[in-house]
Amino acid sequence: xxxxxxxxxxxxxxxxxxxxxxxxxxxxxxxxxxxxxxxxxxxxxxxxxxxxxxxxxxxxxxxxxxxxxxxxxxxxxxxxxxxxxxxxxxxxxxxxxxxxxxxxxxxxxxxxxxxxxxxxxxxxxxxxxxxxxxxxxxx
Length: 139
Hints:
By secondary structure, the chain is an alpha+beta fold. It has helices at 11-21, 24-29, 77-91, 106-111, 131-138; strands at 2-7, 41-48, 51-61, 64-67, 71-72, 97-102, 114-119, 123-128. The protein has one domain: Aminopeptidase (3-Layer(aba) Sandwich), CATH 3.40.630. The chain is built from 5 helices and 8 strands. Strands 1, 2, 3, 4, 5, 6, 7 and 8 form an 8-stranded mixed sheet that branches. It is globular and about 35 Å long. This is N-acetyltransferase domain-containing protein.
């Protein structure tokens, strides 16, 4: 498996993820919430023998980088950990990194260094590492 990084408006990104982001079962797995992208997004797309098995878009915001609306085939913990690791390696050294995580994946994100900030019925907002300390270092 390889993880490819693609800008949020790249033609190859659309070609790779369109069949998944328009798939009813995948949208259901995302609690019926549509996937979105923009020039501010960087996507990590997991490929296994030229088939997309997962993706994780990360949006650059003024307060840091934000993971939301990701997908891993079969809810694979190993695949999620690979995608999370790629996002952390790309963004955490320079920016605070937060994520809106499905409750069923919270333990996987915790194992990758994220901590819960706020809990809802279906989601948990999480932050990577000690974002408060990160903010103090940047000032």
